[in-house]
Write a structure and sequence with these properties.
The protein is an alpha/beta fold. It folds into 2 domains: about 170 residues, Rossmann fold; about 100 residues, 3-Layer(aba) Sandwich (Rossmann fold). It has a 6-stranded mixed beta sheet with strand order 1-2-10-7-8-9, sandwiched between helices. It has a 4-stranded parallel beta sheet with strand order 5-4-3-6, sandwiched between helices. It binds pyridoxal-5'-phosphate. Pyridoxal-5'-phosphate (PLP) binds next to helix 1, helix 2, strand 7 and helix 7.
């Protein structure tokens, strides 16, 4: 079941903008995370593993989604969390714990060495999913976001880039007449473009447009200008967005329209990849939704 919503945004320029509302599929495993996890879980279960391990920071949507999906599949889960344990767990980690995930905190230095963590914590029952679900199976799952969409109607697909897994999947599923725009959530991380391409077949790589200009100061940074845009967007379109990824994506779409990036005949599909739980870290009343 997918919901596609047409926006008012773009009507001034004659550009039709649709949103794939994957944020609506599940309140916790929202958006792209369920899609990115599906083939990893299938693989783990078919090979007889009983426990899933993965990595993430204290605000990682991937960690909560993994915890929740594992509980649904009756798998144990363990999260290796970047940084020392704080007295008060983030709301994200509290949710992960609520879904039965065991949390293991790893210093920032040790966290950089994922191979070392895997070597020191391996067990026969444990299946490892890379950070952010990055990898071939993650991209393959992300491509299924588009399964029920009448894809040929669109000239452009637009989505956020975290690890790059989702955009890689979209590229692999996209059609020869389409461009896939990836809006980076991070500042000055040019290796992202390469990481996306590593998961994409060569003929599909050419249609990738990497857009690094809308990070708003860096990963998870959310200056008042962004929050204000998100509130205005909610008022005009009734679409809630998150501070890390989708707020920046819709801001980018709006700004690209202002800069006449799109032609009047273009039809644009924006992937709303979920992530709304990330807004729980904001002060109350920052957002209207
Ligand atoms: C994780 C996440 C992304 C980034 O996806 P990648 O596949 O890691 O690039 C984008 N949007 C939301 C809402 C997310 O939670």
């Amino acid at each position: 079941m997918v919901t596609i919503q047409s926006l008012h945004l773009g009507s001034e320029q004659g550009v039709r903008i649709d949103v794939l509302r994957s944020d609506l599929i599940h309140p916790v495993i929202s958006g792209n995370k369920w899609y990115k996890l599906r083939f990893y879980l299938e693989d783990a279960i078919s090979k007889g593993y009983s426990e899933i391990a993965s990595f993430g920071g204290a605000y990682s949507n991937h960690i909560v989604a993994t915890a929740c999906a594992c509980q649904q599949h009756q798998l144990n889960s363990i999260g290796f969390i970047r940084g020392d344990q704080t007295e008060q767990l983030s709301t994200t980690l509290q949710s992960a714990q609520f879904y039965g995930m065991q949390l293991q905190f790893v210093s920032r230095t040790d966290y950089k060495n994922k191979k070392g963590i895997i070597e020191n914590n391996s067990s026969q029952a444990r299946y490892w999913i890379p950070e952010g679900g990055y990898g071939y199976l993650g991209a393959k799952g992300a491509a299924t976001l588009l399964e029920k969409v009448t894809l040929k109607d669109y000239t452009h697909l637009i989505a956020a880039i975290g690890s790059g897994t989702m955009v890689a999947g979209l590229l692999n599923a996209s059609l020869p007449h389409q461009q896939v725009l990836g809006i980076s959530s991070q500042k000055n991380n040019d290796s992202l473009e390469v990481e996306v391409k590593m998961l994409v077949t060569s003929e599909n790589q050419e249609r990738f447009v990497y857009i690094p200009d809308y990070h708003f100061g860096g990963f998870a940074k959310h200056p008042p200008e962004l929050l204000n845009f998100m509130n205005q967007f909610w008022i005009k379109e009734s679409v809630p967005t998150d501070i890390v990824y989708t707020g920046k994506v819709f801001y980018a779409v709006s700004d690209l329209l202002d800069k006449s990036y799109f032609k009047p005949s273009d039809r644009v599909l924006v992937i709303h990849s979920g992530g709304l739980q990330g807004n729980l870290s904001l002060a109350k009343n920052s957002l209207l939704f």
